Target: Sodium/proline symporter
Amino acid sequence: MTEGTMQTGTLVSLALYFILMLAIGLYAWRKSTSDSAGYLLAGRNLPPSVAALSAGASDMSGWLLLGLPGALYASGLVEAWIGIGLFVGAVANWIVVAPRLRQQTEELGNALTIPEFLANRFPSQAVALRVTSAVIIVLFFTVYTAAGLVGGGKLFETAFAGMLPGMGMSDYMLGIWITAGVVLAYTMIGGFLAVSLTDFVQGCIMVVALVLMPLVVLTGGVDLGSASEAAAAAGNSDYLALFGGLTAIGWLSAVTWGLGYFGQPHIIVRFMAIRSIPEVKTARNIGLTWMGVALIGAIGVGIAGRAYAEANGVAVEDPETIFIVLATLLFHPLITGFLLAALLAAIMSTISSQLLVSSSSLTEDFYRLFLRKHASEREAVNVGRVCVLLVALAAIVIARDPESQVLGLVANAWAGFGAAFGPLILFALTWDRMTGAGAVAGLVTGAVVVVAWIALGWNGAFLGGPGVYEIIPGFIAASLAIWLVSKATARGEEPVAQAG
Model:
């Protein structure tokens, strides 16, 4: 089979996948885009299975099939601690945040966005909270969306080099535009329901691909020892050791990725849309099972991929493309198309969620708050669609550099949200003595500390030693700010609104 025939078969599978996503967008357009509640939250009527897989798929993004396997390919099993930390954080998020957020957002003014919930929860600081949180959401989600587009660019650059008509663009940039174009189409048309339903389908595709690929590699007679031997020759003798060469700071920086879950608007907004509070438990069980299988599969892709490459003399210039390399070498073109569709699913599910959350903040927390307080529902939905487009264009500009690393961009944005919103959401849902001033202090402190930590390079090297992941100082500083300022302002502030 010629290379051209293989690429054509792969393109056919991808084209069918794109058509399916657009069809779902059209279905959602007919069902739930007549008002803001439908467009931004699907009328709070998501079945538990859709909510669970939507939360998981929008969470994982391209880093699950690119960044995490790439890190394991390059550094070994020690990078699995990121996945372990994430799983523990997800468990806590489903138990602590999900039921409370579902209940309180509905009871406190039927809030459609996280900024609106915070404003209703702390009415004395309503405007400050809505504006500040909306700015942080749009800023970090633009970077986060760019990380997804980098993944789309790398996919097309690696799998279809020189085949697609470039229209004056590189394969990388063409991949970015194709990825963004399809996501924009179904997100702008169908809103939250389209995003959630496509996430459900994409989550199913992702988990099948992540189970299938390492099984095929390992049943093909590849010995994991070849990966360990090659790594040892390169100076890493602990390639298959979970604690190999791991320092206390390195371990802490890896597992504290889990702290970020409490503050990811594109994930926790799924909790707000679950059909009923009793169904949160069902969604939790489905979501955590999906996540556990997906993470194990991603770890398997990285380690088994290194073993396959070493055993067969395959040159992998960019470790983050190991999933793409294996997909093109090991499978029939139609199956390759399915596997690459899984990668696109991981990328697109997160991008669409981030675009919609950014759009909702721009629409509800800027446009309706300052420009058109009495805008009609139809007008608000149309403004939301325009905002989706604007955020996507900004992300495309950021993603233009083909040397961008998916995991690095995701790490920065994940830490920004985790530190700014994580402590704020946890305290707001569980501590009735928290004040509006404390909420603002925590929000600003978390974001500023993360940005400053990155700017100073302390996430790469700190006090002559290894770097400290920026979410750690950001989360601690934000928590202290909330507690101290709330204590100081408790008597001078109006009573905080409470659900129920």
User: Anything to note?
Assistant: The chain has one domain: 3-406. The mean pLDDT is 83.
